[in-house]
Queue: 3 jobs
Job 1
Amino acid sequence: MILGLETSCDETAAALITPDGRILSNVVSSQADLHAQYGGVVPEVASRRHLELVTPVVRAALGEAQAELDDVELVGVTAGPGLIGALLVGVAAAKAIAWARRLPLAAVDHLHGHVASLYLEPDPLQLPFLCLLASGGHTMLLDVRERGRPPHVLGTTLDDAAGEAFDKGARLLGLGYPGGAEIDRLARAGDPAAYDFPVARVPGLDFSFSGLKTALLYAVRELGAEELADRRADLAASYQHAIVRALVDRTRRAAKDTGAGTIAVVGGVAANSELRAALPEAALAPLELCTDNGAMIASAARFADPIPYPGYLALDAYASSA
Ligand code: KG4
Ligand code: ZN
């Protein structure tokens, strides 16, 4: 079986899957509560917490799968992009586990990991497909033709990522961190047509969310504290609607331009209920695999070139892909 480790941001995650993509266990320990008091992830705090959690999380994943380290044939770990200190904890843990058993190690790109959440049982997606990847750090349209090669990037965000827009919007509305799920929940009680927030018109297949965030800021500023409490659900619904409209418009346009027969959606924002409803024809990552997890990293590890023992001892994490 394959062990997947993920520590790129504020989730400490480990999973075991079979080579054909059946999930045996998928343990995610979120640090969200720890960072909530600061309104966002504090990198140094995240690194230290990963260090405390990585061993118990791996143990829990083994326990849930009723497996032992001796059953592991390949270790996959997120090597980047992400918070460098956080990544280093996962990479060091993966090296130690692999080295002690002379196992190969696969260095997984976090974005490939999100795409590989679509390759797991019971319903692995067939290629090729057009993939919208929308997370806290990235918003991309990808032309996916091979599982083991980096996909062609058709479009990306010029400023904030979609998840970042959700998180910053939530902060302006006085909601908790992480904000995406909070806005999603609150939006159900609001009117998406109450405010006409702008959808940025950028050329090509790129995205831009910074203007939208500013529009929300102005709308919030015009309201007193009591008024804001009354209008919060309408603001959340309208703001979410604008983000979803931007994502859906660009994705449909990309599908038309490229003639893609299949649209897929992955990443934390793929958990959004309005986005899921707006793309009924799309292959959506299963809800529990949208936000960061170890199963998607183990899945991607199957298609990476594994580094044989002991070459990976020199492996480094990377903060950004550029
Ligand atoms: O993929 P992910 O776990 O981490 C990154 O790779 O960035 O994505 C986290 C992002 C956060 O910005 C969070 O607010 C957003 O996904 N998110 C959502 C929802 N659940 C999580 N955004 C909108 N609606 C949701 N239901
Ligand atoms: Zn992610």
Job 2
Amino acid sequence: MSKINLIVTENYEEMSKKAAALFEELLKKKPNANLGLATGSTPIGLYKELIKLNKANEISFKDVKTYNLDEYCDLPKQHEQSYYTFMNENLFKHIDININNTHLPKGEGDSKINAKNYEDILKNIKIDIQLLGIGSNGHIGFNEPGTDFDIGVHEVQLTDNTIKDNARFFENDINKVPKKAITMGIKNILDVETIILVANGVNKAEAIKKVMSGKIDKNVPASALNLHKGKVYVIVDKEAASKL
Ligand code: F6R
């Protein structure tokens, strides 16, 4: 059994609202919070909720700093599928954030240098809430199955499973999906104050079942959340909870 706080919602919309409420609570208490952010389809609804709350003047991002989990390697920053573009399109350009306060690992150029630079940035801060999605293979960030839990920011070779899953963003052509990425390591993720993992849909059900079993397994990177000392929330819709 896991000590993770599990919240099962009726649908994707409710999942997004529940997660947004946790961000709202933090930002009302701590307007200069450090937020760890994720990309992918799962958080889009949550980002829409945060944009709504910002436009309604319920929360402000004026003093917030953000740190994203990962970025594809060798994809130009301005590419429509880079995570830099994703964050601008789905969140940053719609809210009152100072763009200089947003951080993503750099995907272009020397990965070793880029990883060290991002690690140095993270070393000096504490993330208040880290948002995570989960891969159907249990990955978090781009920490693929088999990754050691004690490494920091690093370059990864994406697995065939992840390349296949992400082909939907690249005209369903696996050849167009970048093969490498740079990601926060599990060590960075476990260093944060509070973790919120969101998941919807039946293709996440098996991974969620493994995480919630409480068993720590290197081949299920998200199972590392059971080692976290702070709070962990797993917010899932009925379908992602269907194997629990
Ligand atoms: C994205 C990330 C990935 C995704 C995961 C799920 O920054 O780190 O771990 O969260 O691949 O992606 P979606 O939400 O597209 O199913």
Job 3
Amino acid sequence: MTGGHRLRGRVQVAGSKNAALAIMAASLLTPEPLHLRNVPRILDTALMAEIVQAVGGRSKHDGEGRITLQATQVTDRVPAQMAQRMRASIVLLGPLLARTGEGRLTRPGGDQIGARRVEQHLRGFRAMGAQVEETEHEIIARSQGRLRGARIVLDLPTVTGTESLVMAATLAEGRTEIFNAAREPHVQDLCRLLNKMGADVRGAGTDQIVIYGGRRLRGTDHQIVPDYLEAGTYAIAAAAAGGDVTIEECPNEDLQQALLKLEEVGVQLEQRNRTLRVRRDPGRTLQAVDMGTWVHPGFPTDLQAQYMALMTQAQGSCVISEYIFENRFQHATELNRMGASIEINGRDALVTGPRQLQGATVGVSDIRSGAALVIAALCAHGVSAIEQAWHLDRGYEDLVEKFVALGADLERRPAAVPAGRRVEPA
Ligand code: EPU
């Protein structure tokens, strides 16, 4: 990437990665076909389609974001090498357990962004009458007969935990109540889908979800919601690089906290029905503004890295606090290698700017830190090389093409995806 180009033009937001992953897992709840539209063409959804096939389902896609999944029969075990490639595979435990009476999954270990514990998921399944066994490598959940509805109080509003438990509860006998449930837009989209399949899920988008279970679920059609995290990434990129970008299919209502911050920082925003125009004039100075991540509708942790890249271009000092994951500042080291001034102290990062970033060779550790480095490279003098860029392909559809269309100077070099990661986009 060669930095220094302003971004101009229009960019269309793809379907939500995190909604698509949970919704694809929900195909295991019924033998009937699920026809999905607006599925983002990214590595993670391709892998989820492979997993559905590996547990006995069928998957057909048209390469344009339409995918049909049908799980006429389902086995209980997700192959280890697949589960290990994507932590979101934990969301399959609920549907497998509810449909077959047993779910086996390779234990999701800690990863780059934190310990990523799952004890809340397992406590929920136990409350629903399952026996859950944990070995060093595997989680095995079994139920004798059907799961039973239960009152589940989550210690913290885990996203995939809420999704997995809601899905299990749709097939369980009786009423399940989940307190302190996650409210993210992807959780809401999953619940909408489940209701179209014939489930009775109430309260999605609030912290108390009630499911009246035990109904036979059927196939349906569903259009995945636009990805507010992808939209937020382009909004922050336009703010950092400067220019005038209109984001189409932008779910503005899901992005209110992030938009509030961008306005405080000094970016001009125009929200219309389904579009967001982001403008920053060349001479306009950005102001450093503190930010702390929080669960929805707070500022999303999945935009924290991108916001940090933006703050390297802002006047003054600010503290960015990461309250969701205990270890999500890897991008700070790479940003500092490009000339940023970021000091980490526990869950706080002190960013002082503005700094003229310099092009460098930097490494990506996860999807969102990759997005932050792209934003930094847009602002940098000279050429940057972003390595392990396949992380970006896990979560962003056509990222290179979209930035090129906005006037950025970047190209993809081959061999970005290591062996074992190469899957056809869904
Ligand atoms: N946690 C526990 N115990 C649990 C579950 C979670 O302590 O039983 C902790 C985690 O260790 C973490 C925090 O709670 O510190 C939040 O974890 P959560 O379970 O909500 O995260 P997740 O479900 O594993 C999803 C998204 C992530 C996103 C987080 C937070 C999917 C597939 N993944 O992960 O998305 O960062 O919620 O919003 O929905 C991404 O898209 O780049 C991404 C990482």
